[in-house]
Amino acid sequence: MTLKFAIFGDSIAYGQGASSAADTPAQRLSADMTVHDLPNEVRVFAVPGAQSRDLPAQVERGLAWRPQLALIIIGANDLTRLVPPEQAAVQLADAVRRLRAGGAEVVVAPAPDLSVVPWVPPQMRLVVQAGSRLLHDAQSRAARAEGARVADIGMTSAAGFAVDPGLFSADRFHPSSAGYAVIAGALAGAVRAAAVVARSSLG
To answer: I need a labelling partner for 106 at 20 to 30 A (CA). Which of 41, 74, 148, 169 fits?
Structure first.
């Protein structure tokens, strides 16, 4: 049985900055599942620039496809636009709830640590890191409360991005193909675990 795997969220979910489609999170994660005997078809509903408030429209389109597995990567644009953490978390929780009600296993990758982005001034990094942590934690609580798995890439993979400029693309904000390899590697375990559950529910 081929799993329908839907990806929602922002430019990171979309793969902006990758050199080729094969390097995007969607294709990397799909390939990883295939290698682990989890055949799947992946579709990307994510939109570059999306905030948490944009998830309802994406989810509406995605649910029409009836996915059994969903990944949401969201939070960076909420941070840059200073959206209150609890507001963004409520919007994420609603998206997870709708996907779960539609029969999908859901994995959430909450806000990244934007303090490692090269254009953030050194004197602002502690403040940006603290804001990133507040949103990350609020999203994590909200997602788990609705039954999603949380893949903690946002804060745990930040160290690599902080010391390796090659993980960023030319715009110095979005990941490069090498950066997406790091992100997909951090996501793969949670996505595979959710895929196994999703497959078992198909009988």
So the answer is: 169
